[in-house]
Amino acid sequence: MPALVLIGAQWGDEGKGKATDQLGGRVDYVVKFNGGNNAGHTVVIGGETYALHLLPSGILSAGCTPVIANGVVIDLGVLFTEIDGLEARGTDTSKLVVSANAHVIPSYNRVLDKVTERFLGSRKIGTTGRGIGPTYADKMNRVGIRVQDLFDEKILRAKVEGALELKAQVLLKVYNRKAPAVDDVVEDLLSYVDRLRPMVADTGLLLGQALDAGKTVLLEGGQATLLDVDHGTYPFVTSSNATSGGACTGSGIAPNRIDKVIAVVKAYTTRVGEGPFPTELLDDAGEKLRADGHEYGTTTGRPRRCGWYDAVIARYAARVNGVTDFVLTKLDVLTGWDKIPVCMAYEVDGRRFDEMPMTQTDFHHAVPVYDYFDGWTEDITSARTFEDLPKNAQLYIRALEEMSGAPFSSVGVGPDREQTLELRPLV
User: Fold this and answer.
1) Which residues are catalytic?
2) Distance in angstroms (rounded) separating the CA atoms of residues 168 and 164
3) Distance, CA of 290 to CA of 395 (rounded, Å)
4) Would you say residue 344 lies in a domain?
5) Is the distance from CB of 26 to CB of 241 less than 8 angstroms?
6) How do residues 244-282 score in pLDDT, each as one tens digit?
């Protein structure tokens, strides 16, 4: 049985949570392999809305084991607040497994993240200020704190002291902020130990054994392809690998165990934070997409920047990730438009680009080359098969599929779990 990877094909917020939830009842494990509580997945079940940040979307599927793997950075306070919120609504979270190798976000990194972003001013990245970037930096600098360190107070204290030796100086002398005391940081982290201990495991071993036993594992990415630290619109990216390659390093599953790569793409495009966005609409059309699509960040509440579908970045995502299947979401948001533009290519200083420009400079100056498709006015939220859709909606889907580089296997026509058209099986 396979390991499946599910990632975002744009700048995030494509509806990965719904797609994961859609598959949750057909897989045995759902694994979060990157990111932290800087991204949110929204899942709607029977009219009830669930906003997930650190927990894998599979937490909402009764027969599924949710896993937070080694590639994730964890704010323990947020984790247990989220668990408590779900438990209060009747959701069983007892099957959650957390990697011993995942890094935790100490309080000093949240402070550092916020003051650094303010210090950058007009050059800001647009982070959520939750300490994710500094924690990944600590990981690369080999001064990070892992979940397993919390079970040895001597090691934990030594690591906190080592990290704060430099960070306290930076906070005080550069940002005029006092760093948290070592004792306070250690005490805060140790306060979660008793509750955390039963959840912790060698998740790489657990998932390898599950695959050997014929179980199906779904690897769920946070953020998206264009936010990947290596393959995204750097430096306006996240601090982890949100592409399919990151699923292997972030989970401990070998590449040859992966059977499918499913990429979620919205029927238009959005992004949160700073950075270039060729199809962005800064007019009434953009406001209408934002209002109709309820485009506000699940984690931050920030209004999302909105624009038309960009086939160039869809093709890029298909290539970088090895996409076998696309899931198209939020088609219903486009109902009522007379004409729907789609970006087929870019023009930069008189040159045409059918693929992503090599340099950030060219991408920043890219002007979209549009083709236009006839819209539809019929309500499509009750459609349950492809044939139920208006003819123009069918043509729009097939056109996007043709130019995006991989088959469309699923189409979302509303936020609820049931409002999905399955064009071909994903599992």
Assistant:
1) 13, 41
2) 5
3) 24
4) yes
5) no
6) 999 999 999 999 999 999 999 999 999 988 899 999 999
Average pLDDT over residues 82-107: 95
Amino acid at 30: V
This prediction's pTM: 0.91
Full DSSP string of 15-81: SHHHHHHHHHTT-SEEEE-SB-TT--EEEEETTEEEEESSS-GGGGSTT-EEEE-TTBEE-HHHHHH
* Tokens read off for 177: 């902020």
| φ, ψ of residue 152 in degrees (nearest 5) | -135, 100
Report the SS3 class of residue 411: strand
Residue 44's alpha-carbon distances to 59, 225, 401, in angstroms, are 13, 24, 26
Write the DSSP assignment of 293-316 as a string of letters: HT-B-TTT-PBPEEE-EEHHHHHH
| Same-domain pairing of 352 and 278 | yes
Query: Which residue(s) pair with 44 in the sheet?
Result: 49, 416
Whether 292 and 375 map to the same domain: the answer is yes
Number of domains in the chain: 3
Residue 66 corresponds to which tokens in the numbers above? 């949710």
Residue 30 bridge partners (DSSP): 66, 218
List the Cα angle 267/375/303 in 5-degree steps.
Answer: 40
Instruction: Please choose, from the candidates 108, 103, 109, 192, the residue with its C-alpha nearest in 3D space to the C-alpha of residue 151.
Output: 192
Taking only the tens place, the pLDDT of each residue in 295-346 is: 987 666 789 999 999 999 999 999 999 999 999 999 999 999 999 999 999 9
One domain for residues 286 and 365: yes
Other Cβ atoms less than 10 A from the Cβ of 193: the count is: 15
